[in-house]
């Protein structure tokens, strides 16, 4: 059973993050997940081919080439097709990939052991959870860029500075939410790895602005460049971050697709910050029978949510106004 050492715990308390090297076994824990996402890509290809949006299913290409070919040919980033979570707003037709290997990752015992060290033994899987498939920008000539030359869209380009507490509702401001970020492929600087501002979890919740197409961000004036740490990670490493730790990610300037999970957990019973989305008890020492262990029931909880939300007006989980004068 892996545990954080006292010095790793001190590092987390001091800096708001801890990077645990080789926590997971790439062959046993990560390869089966990647294999399942290959199938998800195949399904996307079949679907687009049937709709005559692409000229072939490109079944002979490897994952990276096939993904870029499909994105370029359709002129569209199909991130939602792979994601766990529903988007905000109207969800009626939103595809989601609530696949068994994603559920297995959420319940990975080695992850939960470290999470238990950080937030205690009653662990709830918070529904803010994503897979990010970030292709090399040089291989996306068919995807539109904004006027800064940036690729807009979920997870494809660089992610601006933000705190994860900023993307949930105020109901979760006192929730001890932990972000767990793990690459399924190596995530070095060139692949667009994570950067964190060490110690920023002690600055409180910062004001976030709404970026056009890039999501919420914290303005540079709130950041101390001297405290920026580049978290280069290899497959099997896992990064644990406090909800107030400011972080971002770099653009992918390599020739490989960067794939990662970012998952969140909080002590059971505390508000998740996205009350309409489903979470579950991932570990309970008090009542192990309350744990959700059934991948199908988990998938169904997301399908049911999608169905339910398609019938109501869904608010976004956003507290920050657009056209905020502070952000101009
Ligand atoms: O993976 C990225 O590029 C950004 C991830 C992030 O912001 C998060 O995991 O909270
Ligand atoms: Fe984040």
Annotate the secondary structure layout.
Layout: H1 6-15, E1 17-20, H2 26-50, H3 63-74, H4 79-82, H5 100-106, H6 109-119, E2 122-134, E3 159-162, E4 178-183, E5 194-197, E6 209-211, E7 215-217, E8 228-231, E9 238-242, E10 247-249, E11 258-267, E12 280-284, H7 295-309
Antiparallel strand pairs: 1-9, 2-11, 2-12, 3-10, 4-9, 4-11, 5-8, 5-10, 6-7
The protein binds 2-oxoglutaric acid and fe (ii) ion.
2-oxoglutaric acid (AKG) binds next to strand 4, strand 10 and strand 11.
Describe the protein.
By secondary structure, this protein is α+β, with helices and mostly antiparallel strands. The protein has 7 helices and 12 strands. It has a 6-stranded antiparallel beta sheet with strand order 1-9-4-11-2-12. A 4-stranded antiparallel beta sheet has the order 3-10-5-8, with no helix packed on it. It has a two-stranded antiparallel sheet with strand order 6-7. Strand 6 (209-211) and strand 7 form a beta hairpin. The longest helix is centred in the N-terminal third of the chain and has 25 residues, at 26-50. It starts with 5 loop residues before the first helix and ends in a 19-residue tail after the last helix. The protein binds 2-oxoglutaric acid and fe (ii) ion.
